[in-house]
Write a structure and sequence with these properties.
alpha+beta; 7-stranded antiparallel sheet; 5-stranded parallel sheet; 9 helices; 21 strands; 21% strand
Length: 498
């Protein structure tokens, strides 16, 4: 493989950004190499349940180092960010910065992303739903009877409830059986529209994409003057290989993409590619997330597909609260008690099997100080984004009140976790305040792109997966125009998932 060439682009990472970009470039007739440091998720098709992410977290290595990346275990919630998420918004703890592009510019790509990933949903009951140029590709999923009863009781007391848009191959002829092993599990039926299933496999089927697994990228190579990407230095079984390409896309997630750019530093870029102004690793944001448990009854309700509804009425504000607030979302059934101590595990398990799990999320705000702390080529620490503590507590109170009003006893946890991280290589017009430009190309290094959550300036308050996918499609069009000067590529039709 030494000195290998013949590729128009090399993509490092096969998650939502990398696989979707590969599909876009392959659909445009370009020859693409996708490099993944992991292997396919080990799935026993005869096992009674699907692989659970927690078990993989207990093993050495990166839990996202699989073909398809973290999407193999995501809940397939594929939301468009809300219109206000693209604007500068004042929050309790500070400012959520504006994006360099508006919602209208990304809307056509959201539509393409929904078609590619076979999203099922409906705007009913969601006052935060942004304008759409076309309906959802498919109707929403049906609700389990236990979930339907909860929705009915919430609706009777005036709580607006909406369907979670999901990327599942459900319906006549579909593979999804609405099993309980979905959220935080890999799908044994290939029914979850993860990055591998929805994008990478169709990309490979074009004959234009080659996938190398078990291969890590040591650094991105650049020209002598540091002005353009020329390829990558890869390592397989301890042996180095050089692959030449004019386009290199880094899609390693957080912190992987920022680390790779850091490791790729040269004499011209001594602090790392895209880090001439010290912004690589900065502006980390995400979601402050908590959980409550509305108890359904004394008997176990385990073994159901529950992830089908959300409450988004508080996204831009709430009664008697001056700030943007957040969203509530039911989760799938996840045996999270396995991570609890032996002392409390039986109690946690008993609660989990008799309740629905409801997440509540507010935006954690990026700042110039928040992000990764580098020590040479490693990350030695992190500075957390700004947490809207009072808003988070208020949203928790709203969540508890809503379900109690509907007649449920509620157990609430006060702890918050940082989810759906974004930033560390954010995109923007000005090299003085961003790492990548509006096409996600690294400032000052032609042909080098970052295509994953790292480029998002903010996380808003809904799941970020569809936005990463939409941006990958948009970046793919920019690359295709660069390679072939065909502006019509943006209108190329997709072969959508079922």
């Amino acid at each position: 493989m030494d000195g290998a060439g013949g590729y128009d682009a090399v993509i490092i990472g096969s998650g939502a950004g990398g696989s979707t970009l590969a599909y876009r470039l392959a659909s445009g007739g370009r020859r693409v190499l996708v490099v993944e440091q992991g292997e396919a998720v080990p799935i026993d098709r005869t096992a009674p349940s699907n692989p659970y992410l927690y078990h993989l977290l207990k093993t050495p290595g990166d839990p996202a180092a699989f073909v398809g990346g973290a999407t193999k275990f995501y809940g397939a919630s594929l939301y468009r960010m809300r219109q206000s998420d693209f604007r500068e918004v004042l929050h309790e703890a500070g400012v959520s910065p504006a994006w360099p592009i508006g919602y209208a510019e990304l809307e056509p790509y959201y539509l393409q992303a929904e078609r590619l990933y076979g999203v099922r949903g409906a705007p009913d009951g969601d006052p935060s739903e942004p304008p759409r140029s076309a309906p959802f590709p498919h109707p929403p999923l049906p609700h389990d009877p236990v979930v339907a009863e909860m929705i009915g009781r919430l609706s009777k007391v005036g709580i607006e409830v909406s369907a979670i848009p999901r990327g599942l191959d459900y319906g006549p002829g579909g593979k999804c059986v609405l099993c309980a092993d979905c959220d935080a599990h890999a799908c044994a039926f290939d029914a979850k529209m993860d990055a591998e299933t929805a994008a990478l496999r169709p990309a490979i089927a074009t004959g234009n994409v080659e996938l190398w697994t078990g291969v890590s990228c040591r650094k991105v190579l650049t020209s002598d003057d540091g002005a353009r990407a020329t390829g990558v230095l890869l390592v397989k079984d301890g042996v180095e290989h050089v692959v030449n390409a004019d386009i290199v896309a880094v899609s390693c997630g957080i912190p992987g993409s920022a680390l790779l750019l850091r490791r790729s530093r040269t004499e011209r870029h001594p602090e790392g590619l895209g880090n001439d102004n010290g912004l690589l690793g900065r502006y980390l944001g995400g979601h402050s997330s908590g959980v409550i448990f509305p108890l359904v009854g004394l008997r176990s309700i385990w073994g159901r597909h529950t992830k089908t509804f959300a409450i988004n009425a508080y996204h831009d504000g709430a009664p008697d609260w001056p700030w943007p607030t957040g969203v509530l979302q039911v989760a799938g059934q996840v045996p999270f008690w396995e991570g609890a101590s032996r002392l409390i595990r039986p109690l946690v398990k008993a609660i989990a099997k008799r309740s629905l799990t409801i997440f509540y999320m507010t935006e954690a705000l990026p700042t110039k100080e928040s992000g990764l702390v580098f020590d040479g080529d490693e990350v030695k620490g992190r500075v957390a984004p700004l947490h809207n503590a009072k808003t988070f507590a208020h949203l928790r109170q709203l969540a508890v009140q809503a379900f109690r009003k509907a007649g449920y006893m509620v157990i609430a946890r006060k702890r918050d976790d940082l989810w759906h991280e974004v930033g560390t290589a954010r995109f923007g017009h000005d090299p003085q305040s961003s790492v990548t430009d509006v096409d996600c190309q690294v400032h000052g290094v032609s042909g080098l792109y970052v295509v994953d959550a790292s480029v998002l300036p903010t996380a808003g308050t809904v799941n970020t997966g569809l936005t990463i996918i939409a941006l990958a499609l948009r970046t793919g069009d920019a690359i295709l125009r660069r390679l072939s000067a065909q502006p019509e590529v943006a209108n190329k039709p997709f072969a959508p998932a079922r």
